[in-house]
Give the backbone structure.
Amino acid sequence: MRRRAAVMAGPGPGSVPLVRFAVPGECVAVLPGSGESLVGAPGVGVLLRRGNLFDHLTVGRNVVLAGRLAGRRSLRSAGDLLELVGLAGRGDDYPDTLSALEGARAGVAVALAGAPEVVLADEPAGELDGIAARELMDLLCAVAARGTAVVVATRDPEIAAAAQRIVRVA
């Protein structure tokens, strides 16, 4: 099982600090949020609050595009990834037809499309209610159990509680 970590930000306005890795899965460096876009490095999948989906592409095409942009060959097809995240049969649907939880699940599939060693999730449950947020965290824990390290940046202590390690940022 790979590690699950949470980076908790203190109260206040603005985005949760973005997380970057020097050594995937081991060394975490936390940078204050600056509005700078986090671009996935090789071996890193990124999951943002709204799921990383282009509205003009189907969910399946979003996953395929993410895999191509990552430049890494995934062992799983888009359909397999959508099945893994609980969206089997939804590949031809457009993002605006998905519920908030389904959109977050699709975002996990997008983040996994390049077969990353690490998934960085920046407030992935920020748009979800309590039950849906727990379901998403269960999915991210399952991703970690399958061998992909997961780091979640959050202000929510309940979300952070799913982690094996919590790093607090003032």
About this structure: The two ends are 29 Å apart (CA to CA). The helical segments are 59-70, 78-84, 100-112, 130-145, 157-160. The CA atoms of residues 49 and 124 lie 4 Å apart. The chain is about 30% helix and 20% strand.
